[in-house]
Amino acid sequence: MRFAVVGAGAIGTVHARLLEALDDELVAVVDQDLERAQKLADQYGARASPDAASAYAEVDAVSICLPSALHADAAIEALYAGKHVLVEKPVDITLAAADRLIAAQRETGRTVSVVSQRRFQEPVVRIKEAVESGALGRITSGIVESAFYRPQSYYDGDGWRGTLAVDGGGALMNQGIHALDLLVWMLGRPVQVSAQTAQLAHQNLEVEDVAAATITFESGAIGLLLASTAAYPGRAVRLSIHGDQGIAVMDDDRLVALTTEGGEGVERHTSSRPGEGAAGGVGRGVAEAATPSGADGWGPVQLAHLAQYRDFVGAVVEGRAPGVGVADGRRALATVLAVYESARVGRPVEVDG
User: Is residue 269's pLDDT more than 70?
Assistant: First the structure.
C-alpha cells in the first residue's frame, strides 16, 4: 500500500520507519517545513511536499502525524481526497473535532483508525480475552498507571507542547491517553469522573504534568488512573484488572499475573512480541512468525505499533473495521476532557458519550 506521512517531526519519523518495516511504500512526506520534509523523505526514497493535496494523488492511505489540534481537520481533508487514514492519538483535542471526523468517515466510507498501539501488546490482548471470556468474573475495578518523565527541554523544544490551544493538555492528553484507553477498553463505557491535576515539576506550561482520577463505569466498576510526566526516571505502564473471580496484571510490558478462581495461581509470561489472539478484533495481524525486516531490536511497544499498522492495512484490504476506530478515539478523548473539567470545577462530572 502506498502511504503519505503528514508531519515530519518525531512521530512522523516513527511512522516512516514502521512503513519500511512492513514493506509498505512511503511515497510522500508532507510538512510545511519543506526542509524537514525533504530530510525525512530522502531517507526513504519518498517525495517531499509542503502541500497535502498534491501528495494525495499518488497514495492510497495517509498517516496523520501533526500536533494534536490539527489531527481531525487533516484527516478529514485526506478522507475527502479519497484516502484511508491512520491518525495519531489523540483523535483531536475537542469532541466537536472528533465528531466532524466521524461524520466525514461515514460520508466517505473510507477506513479510519486512531493510534492506540498498546491494545496490540500481547499481555493486553490476553487480559482483554480474559475479560471477554468471563474468566475474571464480573469486572469490579481496574488501575492504570502511566508514570513517565519528560525533562523541561521536551516542552521547550517545540512551541506547541504544553499549550492548551495545540497540545490540548499535558501528561494525560499527550502521554497517559494510551493507558487510559486500555482502562476504558477493559471496563466499558465511563460515565463519571472525579479528578485532580497539577503542574509540579515543570515551568511555563499551560497544562498539567500530573493527573489522577477515579472513573465510574456504566457497569458499576470503578477505575483509578494516574498519568504523569514528572516521575523521574519514568517506568512502563502498569495495568491491573480485577474481577470477582480473578485478577490480571501487566507490568514492565509483561503479563505478570493472571489468577482465576480454580486456576493455578500466578502465571508468569515473558514474551515481548505481540502474540496471537482476537480480543475485540484487535488480535488480527498482531502475530508474525518473525520480526519483520527493519524491526530488529524493537521493544514491545514499537512492535505493537507495527501490529496496529498491520491491522489498519488489513482492514483496508479486507473491507472490515479496524481494531481501533474513531469512536474509540472519541471515547478516550471524552474521558480525558472529563478529567480536566472535574479538576477545574472541583467536583465529579459526567463523561460525554
Answer: no
Residue-averaged pLDDT of the chain: 92
Within this chain, do residues 163 and 237 fall inside the same structural domain, yes or no?
yes
Domain boundary at 60, 94, 117, which? 117
Looking up residue 257, the CATH number of its domain turns out to be: 3.30.360.10
Q: Which of 3, 116, 110, 141 is nearest to 62 (CA)?
A: 3
Name the residue range of residue 17's domain: 2-117
Question: Which tens digit of pLDDT belongs to each residue from 294-323?
Answer: 666 789 999 999 999 999 999 999 999 999
Confidence of residue 186 (pLDDT cuts 50, 70, 90): very high
Residue 65 · residue 12 · CB < 8 Å: yes
Residue 108 lies in a domain: yes
- The pLDDT value recorded for residue 157 is 87
Kindly state whether residues 142 and 273 are assigned to the same domain: yes
**Neighbour-count burial of 129, counting CB atoms closer than 10 A to its CB (0-12 exposed, 13-18 middle, 19+ buried):** middle
Helix (H) or strand (E) holding 226: strand 222-228
Candidates 34, 45, 33, 50; CA nearest to 3 is: 45
Cell 479486507 belongs to which residue? 318
Identify the helix (H) or strand (E) that includes residue 86. strand 84-87
Regarding whether 7 and 107 lie in a shared domain, the answer is: yes
Euclidean distance between CA atoms 145 and 212, whole angstroms? 9
* Position 350 in a domain: no
* Count of domains for the chain: 2
274, pLDDT greater than 60: no
Q: Which three cell numbers stand for residue 147?
A: 508514570
Q: Check residue 88 and report its DSSP letter.
A: P
Burial zone of 268 (CB within 10 Å; 0-12 exposed, 13-18 middle, 19+ buried): exposed
Q: What is the pLDDT of residues 231-255, one digit of tens each?
A: 999 999 999 999 999 999 999 999 9
